[in-house]
Write a structure and sequence with these properties.
This protein has 426 residues and is α+β, with helices and mostly antiparallel strands. It is built from eleven helices and 19 strands. It is globular.
Length: 426
């Protein structure tokens, strides 16, 4: 879980802006005790007008973990996530994240540009006291970085030298364990790297997966299949269950002829010309009897709901961190709030950070009474930079509605729209 995060000079964020998930105590189902005496919010919601910079905070969170675990094979490769604020593009990007993995706290700070990681330092708290994991500084192009390791890691000299030799200037020290076979005393690196790879997810999860693949994978796992069927039934979609099916696929003679002429592998041709395709059928219920509905007849909202169930299953069965952008889009607000409640009341050490335009969430007692889970995002008119304000930082009386205060513009983060009348004459 993420304890706190800040970023500077990234995308629409010029000045240092951050999120803190620290809570004062076990006040509600929104809070979990991630370590002895340490309480964190399991949910974070970012509100703001279009183009305010809500999504950019999720992208930044995604980038700091991607940078931490993804190695490079070539020293000339660009750091793709290096996108500085447009007006200070020559300055380095700075990020900080404090997070928990396997119950241990880690603090990571990094400065980088499109070519190099200039500085990075990773601390951890193996016995509740702060210890150095490693520290690294950029020395020069084509020159080995200066890397120091904490004594508590107890790394052999030859292991330290091997890590230094494999650390290129454009990737983190931690990511070396993914590209080099090292001795067994590198176990602390492998444990942390493996935890991040398994439990911290990209924005919107694995977007490469199609709906059919998601549902087939779930169907082959009895527990996950039961979860999907249960959640589809509870969502009032009139769906009892689903099952994988094979459908006939029309391949025109013209398309077949064109593919046969292409210079591509035979297995690719076979896949493109396959006369059948995998799909899913949903069993719907009526008083007159049950009947099948094919996947391509399902609504856009149903498809969106199915996709986000994959993240929900992970979060309630293990410890995961997900970032979901524009959650609530295509979903009824009651179904959105139901989804969040299932997460909150069935998860333990998982965390969900979302952006949303569904402001009715602010009227829910659980959110209004825990304002630390909400941030309002708006662009500074003078600098065009995004600014983030936590919901409990406005000094609102506890009896005042967060929803009404936001609706009337008291909390900012709303678009200032012009006249509805349009004059196209010169």
């Amino acid at each position: 879980m993420i304890r706190d995060f800040w970023v500077k000079n990234y995308l629409s964020i010029r000045d240092k802006q951050g999120l803190s998930f620290l809570a004062k105590g076990p006040s509600s189902e929104l809070v979990t005790e991630v370590a002895d005496g340490v309480f964190l919010y399991k949910l974070g919601i970012l509100y703001g007008s279009n183009a305010s910079g809500k999504s950019n905070m999720l992208i930044a969170l995604n980038e700091v973990f991607r940078l931490l675990v993804s190695p490079k094979s070539d020293a000339t490769q660009r750091i793709n996530g290096s996108i500085p604020f447009a007006l200070t593009k020559d300055d380095p990007i700075e990020m900080h994240v404090s997070f928990y993995a396997n119950g241990i706290r880690y603090d990571y700070d990094v400065r980088f540009n499109e070519k190099y990681i200039l500085n990075e330092v990773l601390y951890y708290y193996p016995n509740k006291s702060k210890s150095l994991f490693y520290e690294r500084s950029f020395v020069g192009e084509n020159i080995q970085a200066d890397v120091k390791f904490g004594a508590s890691l107890k790394l052999q000299i030859k292991t330290q030298d091997s890590i230094r030799e494999n650390t290129l200037n454009n990737h983190s020290v931690l990511s070396v364990c993914r590209k080099a076979a090292l001795t067994e005393d590198i176990a602390p690196f492998n444990v942390l790297h493996g935890w991040i790879m398994e439990n911290y997810h990209d924005v919107d999860g694995d977007v490469e997966k199609g709906i059919v693949e998601i549902l087939k994978n779930a169907y082959n796992n009895p527990q996950k299949r039961k979860f999907y069927n249960t959640m589809l039934q509870k969502a009032d979609l009139n769906i009892l269950e689903y099952r994988p099916v094979v459908e006939d696929r029309f391949v025109s003679a013209e398309f077949r002829e064109r593919i046969q002429k292409e210079n591509i592998p035979e297995e690719v041709k076979d896949a493109l010309l396959k006369p059948t395709s995998d799909s899913v059928a949903f069993v719907n219920h009526s008083m007159a009897g049950d009947f099948d509905i094919p996947l391509n007849w399902q609504s856009k909202g149903t498809i969106k709901y199915i996709r986000i169930l994959d993240a929900l299953y992970d979060m309630i069965t293990n410890s995961h961190v997900y970032y979901l952008d524009e959650l609530g889009e295509d979903l009824h607000n009651d179904l959105l709030y139901y989804y969040l409640n299932v997460f909150l009341f069935n998860s333990d050490k998982s965390q969900l950070i979302i952006t949303s335009q569904e402001t009715t969430l602010l009227s829910q007692d659980l959110i209004n009474e825990n304002r630390g889970v909400v941030w309002f995002v708006e662009k500074n008119k003078e600098t065009a930079s995004s600014e983030y304000s936590r919901g409990d930082s406005f000094g609102l009386h506890k009896n005042l509605s967060l929803y009404n205060s936001y609706r009337i513009g008291r909390l900012g983060a709303k678009p200032e729209l012009g006249s509805i009348f349009i004059n196209l004459e010169d």
